[in-house]
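W.,

You were right to be curious about this one. When I first looked at the sequence I had no strong expectations either way, so I just let the prediction run and decided to look at it fresh. Below is the sequence, 152 residues in total, followed by the output.
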Amino acid sequence: MSIFFVIIFFIDLKHFIIPNQLTFPLMAIGFFKTFNPNLNQYFFPNLIDSMIGGVVGYSIIWIIIFAYKKLRKKEGMGLGDAKLLSAIGFWFGWMSIPFILFFSSFIALAYALPSLLNKSKNMSSSIPYGPYLVLGCVLYLFLLKQIVLYLN
């Protein structure tokens, strides 16, 4: 998964696209890994949590895309981001989605805010969201133990 993340990070950063050739295999591997009983259940969810994660991850971004397009009458985000969050959901389950969405949005805002304040970018400037989803997921993995301890 990590090599996929590195590739997605830099492709989206430079070209504003997340190729299906990367997200579809991530989704499939994320789904099929749930059938391996030897995987650490601490990091990887069961089949149901994985399936819900994939569907919820895709649906949340799709709803944002749909609502933005209806309200603003223009594209605001691509489906590559939805597919990437779906793949993350398949890998780490539905419980990872809120954390990853919150922190990826926070990191993206922290990156964009200085550019908005000094007016080098405006509110309609494009920023790739895939790299921030990747960073949010990496942060989730690093903090997973603390999250579990906090929730228990």
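Here's what jumped out at me. The mean pLDDT is 90. And, maybe more interesting for your project: DSSP finds six helices and no strands in the chain.

Coffee later to discuss?

I.
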